[in-house]
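Hi support team,

I submitted a single chain yesterday and got back a structure, but I'm not sure I'm reading the token output correctly. Could someone confirm the output below corresponds to the sequence I sent? I've pasted both exactly as they appear in my results page.

Thanks,
R.
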Amino acid sequence: MPDLNPDRAALGWNPWFAEQARLHCGPADTAARVTSVDRGWLVLLNETGVFRAQLSGNLLHSARAAAARPCVGDWVCVARAGADGFGSVQALLERQTSLRRKAAGAVGEQMIAANVDCVIVVQSCHYDFNLKRLERYLTMVAEGGATPWILLTKTDLVAPEIVEGQIAEIRGAGIAAPVLRLSNVTHEGIDELQRMLVPGQTYCFVGSSGVGKSTLINGLIGHAQQETKTVSGSGEGRHTTVRRELIVLANGAMVIDNPGMREFGLLDAEAGLAGGFADILALAPQCKFNNCTHVSEPGCAVLAAVSAGTLDRGHYDNFLKLAREAKLGALSPAEKRKKERAFGRLVKSAKKDR
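Hi R., thanks for writing in. Yes, this is the structure output for that exact sequence:
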């Protein structure tokens, strides 16, 4: 039965997972962490080393939804059998934190990574900096329970005052997450980032394609683990990471790279709004009504701050957009269809009136 051993603890194992293993693992099972998923095969890692495994028939049957199956960062119970050393995954241990989004073009959710301690949101200072997208990322991170950091890359391509202005925008939006600046060319900030990566902790890098995530991880590893392409004439890299992978660094910290994500849907934005809108949520208790929506109510402290210029209008508009998305995401499929039909009738009625 899996327990609290120090070798496994170096991979992120803790009392939470030990208790989950006690409840779900069989006497002959061992616990292992998922480092990558490749066409039905899982690459697993534990104190004995790296090995491959597939889901057992029972788990395949019970975990029909993709999000209920193991992803990078998960802990699983696995039975080792046969001379080939392959394993059979018997159970997925409950996740302590998660990073997920709406599945692109489909109903449901897509797991990005699990059991992540810190999510590092990467934006390039050159062309990629976008405050609204950053707020969206931070909302997703907060919803999953991980700690967010912000990493501004390619500082060598812009003047120092531009970087300072971007940091001022971040702070002006009420975002309190740590902000690091980094250049893979001049190596500014790399030593500071390395000092912040704690052994036994898991860090997931997310951001748009070409912002320098894979190049950065190559530098942290010390060799070209992730393939990268040369920087284009515009200064933006061409992205090549096609699958997620958990990598153990020399100091014992673990990092996960991700394919670029410029657009994504939020599953439970309401639970994560504090991640990017702490300033607005701090004003909410001062509103006249407890159920204030901050749209048109009299005595709304948020609207008063927008009118006074102490709260940025664009920041406020993005808050309303994500709040509406949170409300829509909380509806059942039947409720969503009903809402869509009602909207369709409204459009038809408006056309007839014209």
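A quick pointer for reading it: The chain has three domains: 6-92, 98-257, 277-353. Let us know if anything else looks off.

Best,
Support desk
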